[in-house]
From TrEMBL:
All copies of domain Metallo-beta-lactamase, residue ranges: 7-202
Protein family membership: Belongs to the UPF0173 family.
HAMAP family: UPF0173
Name this polypeptide is given: UPF0173 metal-dependent hydrolase DP107_15190
Source superkingdom: Archaea
Organism: Haloglomus irregulare
Matching InterPro entries: Metallo-B-lactamas, RibonucZ/Hydroxyglut_hydro, UPF0173, UPF0173_UPF0282_UlaG_hydrolase
Alphabetically ordered keywords of this record: Hydrolase
One Gene Ontology term of the molecular function aspect: hydrolase activity
Organism taxonomic ancestry: Archaea, Methanobacteriati, Methanobacteriota, Stenosarchaea group, Halobacteria
Length: 241
């Protein structure tokens, strides 16, 4: 599984022959890419409808959208993206097969909505666990899974559900504070998730979320977690094995 961070919360995940793009927003200081520079993904995963997460979703009209039904309806009406998982989106707790990947949706503690001259209620914000096999209660040491936490605060479900049941090997957690967790709470999330690899995201894009990423590294160490923290450069990739 190859993970590429395009700044903010935008990730490209390659599982076998299947490409998945999460929260396409290329108007951030950590990427040099324009949406036109990106190969069209097979699947477009959207955690919620804030502009800094769906700003460039309309640039990928042929992708199949993975999102809650309300958000699938919104991007179809407003952005012209007609394909959605099962034709109707998915919802929290569900797992869907997306090519060579399996995508499990989990809630995120955040807000959601969009204003386009009228108000849309767009369901609960979410995160995703992307794995190369379907999660089961039988632990599979050969399976590989990546957790994109979305925009969220610290949640006990990270320890009780995501970490213990979905068992991700790696996690991307928002660490910019102000709108999401800051370094200290993001580090607790990493510890609760019991992952081997951790990546900070959702930082430095705007002045309120500018941080020193060394703080995140130190906070993870302070929890006693064994996770290796990777502070990626924009458009840098990491191979998860």
């Amino acid at each position: 599984m190859e993970l590429t961070w395009h700044g903010h919360s935008c990730w490209h995940v390659q599982v076998g022959e299947t490409s998945l793009l999460i929260d396409p927003f290329f108007g951030n200081p950590h990427t040099s890419l324009d949406p036109s520079d990106v190969d069209d993904p097979d699947y477009l995963l959207l955690t919620h409808a804030h502009e800094d997460h769906i700003a460039h979703a309309g640039e990928f009209p042929d992708a199949t959208v993975v999102a809650v039904p309300e958000l699938c309806g919104y991007v179809e009406d407003e952005l012209g993206i007609e394909n959605a998982i099962a034709g109707m989106g998915m919802n929290i707790g569900g797992t869907v097969e997306a090519g060579d990947a399996h995508v499990t949706m989990h809630r995120a503690d955040h807000t959601n909505g969009a204003m386009t001259g009228y108000e849309h209620e767009l369901g609960m914000p979410v995160g995703f666990v992307i794995s190369d096999s379907k999660p089961t209660r039988e632990s599979d040491t050969e399976a590989t899974a990546f957790y994109h936490a979305g925009d969220t605060g610290l949640m006990s479900e990270m320890k009780d559900v995501v970490g213990s049941y979905l068992e991700p090997d790696a996690a991307a957690v928002p660490a910019g504070d102000h709108f999401t967790m800051g370094p200290a709470q993001a580090a607790i999330a990493v510890d609760w998730l019991d992952v081997d690899h951790a990546f900070p995201m959702h930082y430095d894009t705007f002045p309120p979320i500018e941080i020193d990423t060394d703080r995140f590294v130190h906070e993870v160490e302070a929890t006693g977690s064994d996770a290796e923290v990777h502070v990626l450069d924009g458009d840098e990739s990491f191979t998860l094995e």
